[in-house]
Write a structure and sequence with these properties.
The protein has helices spanning about 45-60, 80-85; strands at about 15-20, 25-30, 35-40, 70-75. It has a single domain, classed as TTHA1013/TTHA0281-like (2-Layer Sandwich), CATH 3.30.2390.10. It has about 90 residues and is an alpha+beta fold. It has two helices and four strands. It is about 30% helix and about 30% strand. The protein has a four-stranded mixed β-sheet, with helices on one face.
Length: about 90
């Protein structure tokens, strides 16, 4: 067993999508500065599905490499206002 990473091993850095729940509107919102993308949905599951649906098209339109090896990391951010509303 070897711990050596082969030179042809391609590890892509994930795109970071920050996720918040907007208590005032009742919507989940995801935004990713690196992809210039923002979208919203009524549930977390619908939000991540929607984000994966639009990310490749928006990346292509902005000249950002995005393919089958691209990864998105969803980071849930919580603020005091959303904590009180829950």
């Amino acid at each position: 067993m070897s711990n050596v990473i082969h030179p042809n091993f391609k590890r892509s850095t994930p795109f970071i999508a920050n996720v918040i729940f907007d208590a005032q509107s009742g919507m989940w919102v995801a935004s990713c500065d690196a992809l210039h993308t923002m979208t919203e949905a009524t549930s977390y599951e619908a939000l991540t599905e929607r984000f994966w649906e639009i990310a490749p098209e928006i990346a292509l339109a902005n000249g950002i490499p995005f393919d089958g090896t691209s990864r998105i990391q969803f980071r849930h951010l919580e603020d005091a206002a959303s904590r009180i509303a829950m």
